[in-house]
Amino acid sequence: MANVKFYKPEEQVPLELHKVRVVQKLFLLPVEERVQKMVEAGNNTFLLQNKDVFMDMLTDSGVNAMSDNQIASMMIADDSYAGSETCNRLLAALEETFGTKYFLPAHQGRACENILAEAFVKPGTFTLMNYHFTTTKAHITRVGGSVIELVKSAGLEPVNDDPFKGDFDIPRLEQVIKDLDPKNVAFVRIEAGTNLIGGQPVSLQNMLEVAEVCKKNGILSILDASLLQDNMYFMKMREPMCKDMSIKDIMHKLADTMDIVYFSARKLGFARGGVIISNNEDLILKMKEFVPLYEGFLTYGGMEVRSMEAIAVGLRETLDMDIISQGPIFIEHLVNELDSYGVPMIKPAGGLGAHINAGAFLPHLSHADYPAAALGAALYIAGGIRGMERGTMSEQRNPDGSERYSELELLRLAVPRRVFTLSQLKYCADRVKWLFDNRDLIGALKWENEPAVLRFFFGRMQPVDDWQLKLAQKFRADFGDSL
Length: 483
Ligand SMILES: Cc1ncc(COP(=O)(O)O)c(C=O)c1O
What we know:
By secondary structure, the chain is an alpha/beta fold.
C-alpha cells in the first residue's frame, strides 16, 4: 500500500489515490423542509427521495464509485442470451482472483442466499453463523430453517480492542454442532466484515478453523464474501499470518478451503450483481437448477451484462491494496473524529461505514423506543444525512410475535468507496456532534405501519410527540440562516 507521509505529521489525513472525473450535484434543503420530508418518509430513511438527501450514507451497496476501467469495460459487453463472451470474461476473472472453476450468476447477494436456502436448508434444520445478515436470515427462515449466531463475545461489545471482533467462538461452534447433531446443521456461514455488528472483520485464522470444524463434522462451509475487500485490508494490517500473503493469496486460500463462496457484487467488485463460486461440481449441480428458475439463464442470472464486465474488472482491482484501503482508512478517520467529540462509536473502526452506538447516544430511550431509528431520523433533520438503522427495527419479530430486541442499537453511516471527500465527512462529523450536544431533544418512535417481512425496508414510523419540530427549532436558533 502506498505510504505517503505529510511534512507536518499533525496535519496528516487520509490521501485519496485516485482523482474524481464525474460528479453529481447535491442539494441541502432547509431544516424545516427536512422535517417535512422525514414525515413524508414515515421516519424511515429508506423511504426518503435521494434528491432530498445531501449525504447518502444509507449503504455501500451498488453505490461505490466505479473506476475508469470498469466503465470502459462496459462498452464491450456481449449481450447474447447464451454463450456470451461477457460470461467467459467474468469466469476468467473469478478464476484469476479466487482460483475457482465453477460459477453461478444471480442478480444480487440475496438472490444467492435464496438459492443456497432452497438447495441446502430443510425445515427444522439450523444454520450456524458468526452473525446473521437481514436478507440471509429472511431466506433461511422462509424455508423453515433457524439461525444460530456464534460470534465471540467481544463482537457484541461496542468498544473492545480485539482486532477481529467478527470471529466465531470456535469452542461454542463445536459444542453447538455436538448438541444439535451435525445432520441437523444445514451449513455454517461465515460472514466476512460482519455487517450488522459494525463491519467488524474475521481473521483468516478463524475462517480456516471454522472450515476445519465443518470438514471434521461433514458440514458445508459457506463464506459470504460480500464485505471481503474491507476484511482483507484488516487481515493484511492486523494479522501476522497475512503479512507476507498477497490479496490474491488470501482469496485463493479462502476459496480453496470453503465449500462455497458467494457475494453481493454491489459490494465486492464495485458494481452490481451476485456470484456463487465453488471448486465442487456436485455442489454447483445442486444449486444450478434454481438459477434459470429464479434468476435467468446460466450465463447472466439476472445480471445486466455491462455490470458483469464491471464486476470482472472490479474484482481484479480488488487485488490492489491502494484501492481496497481507501474505504477503511476514510471510515477510521470519521470514527476517530466522532470519538474525539465524545460520540459513542463502535470501536475499533470497521469496514463499510462508521457505526454510532445509538443505545449509548440516547440512554433515555429503551429498545422499545427504537433508538437507532430515532437517531437516523434526527440526523437527517440535523444535516440532510441519510444513515441506516441497524438495531431493533432491522430485526424480525420472534415466531410468537413478540419483539426481538437487537443486541446492539446502531446507526450506520456507510461510506461508499471513493464517493465522499474529506470535507463532506467533516461536515457529517460536525452535524453528529451538534446532535450529540442536543441529544436530550431526541425522542422515541413508534410503528405506524409494520410489514411482516424485512420491515425496515418499507415500514413507517411516527414520533411519539413533537420532538422533531423542537429539534428543528433548536437547529435554527443555533445555526441562524445556515442550511
Ligand atoms: C454481508 C452481506 N451479505 C449479503 C448481502 C445482500 O446483498 P444484496 O444487497 O446484493 O442483495 C449484503 C448486503 O448488504 C451484505 O452486507
